Amino acid sequence: MDRAPIDFWFDFISPFGYVASLRIDDIAARHGREVRWHPILIGVTVLKVMGLRPLMSTPLKGDYIAREFERYCRKHGLRLARSIRDPLMDPLPVQRAFAWLIEHASEHALPFARAALHAHWHDGVALDVEAAIHAAGSAAGVPHETMREATSDPRASPLLRAEVEGAIARGVFGSPYFIIDGEPFFGADKLEEIDAWLRSGGW
Amino acid sequence: MDRAPIDFWFDFISPFGYVASLRIDDIAARHGREVRWHPILIGVTVLKVMGLRPLMSTPLKGDYIAREFERYCRKHGLRLARSIRDPLMDPLPVQRAFAWLIEHASEHALPFARAALHAHWHDGVALDVEAAIHAAGSAAGVPHETMREATSDPRASPLLRAEVEGAIARGVFGSPYFIIDGEPFFGADKLEEIDAWLRSGGW
Fold first, then answer.
1. ipTM (interface pTM)
2. Which residues span the domain enclosing B18?
3. How far is CA B129 from CA A70, A202, B114, B148, B150, in A?
């Protein structure tokens, strides 16, 4: 692991962020890279910074994206309890807990994020209630006391805000978003290109 | 050519539409398919129907898309006189001529579109003046009298409008956009997936 890690941003409410999370670590490892996972809030970037509508309520594009996601899932053999067409949950509680773990118990951050994404998309669990977030922590082997702090410490909110502001300052606006040696890649359908980029050293 | 043709929509002002136009016919031919080229006006779909901002003036995304396009061009060895960061031309004159040719001189429509795209993106020519449109017609071997009609017949405008309305009715919102046996694909970075889809018969 002598080369710089890959930075990967995702939002728990982003279906393409979820499916990318299932593959990016393996792709990176194949090329001797680690992946640093980061939270992003697409509600902030898309609505406030970019001034756009929510993707799924954008005429024409919402329908298209749903079909594209379902095609992606068929191709990769993913059977999810949650549909891309389901109403969004509030991502703040789980993103705050994730940001807290990154800062205060970093060894637990990634297992927690994986378990929470799995609970939300694969199992269909809404993560906007504390019990569901604690259950994801348990599934990931995070000590209960640590999860309790992650969901109750008022410092979690400014930690998340700092993460999101830092991401925006680097140009990050969506989920999944990757920066590799300064080069940005947006979207789950960039994973093949990322693989080729890492193999060849870029172009 | 016993299978249904692929429908392909593009706007002359769309850089990703241009680069997709360079590859879609070869990909289709490899799988025994023809391609039907259609005009779309992304100014209408993006701004009016979808209610979004112009892509290149969307904060964060504009910068990202420019980098993605330049990376695409490096990968595919494209050296273009026009940059994605250049101001847009008015696409209506050339799209109207294209729509007229599709209806009244269909054998010339595709050669004209290819020559016009090449003039605009490869050579950096603005196609919002009649002389430039006629020059693209000449380069494509379209008789001068035919081009004169294509750029002066008042029926060109309603023909284009009908094409765009028909496209929107089918869900088309961007450039490039493809429909293959009822399945929609958006973006130049879907060409590899389209190739795989045609090879395998879909999934």
1. 0.94
2. 6-200
3. 44, 40, 17, 13, 13
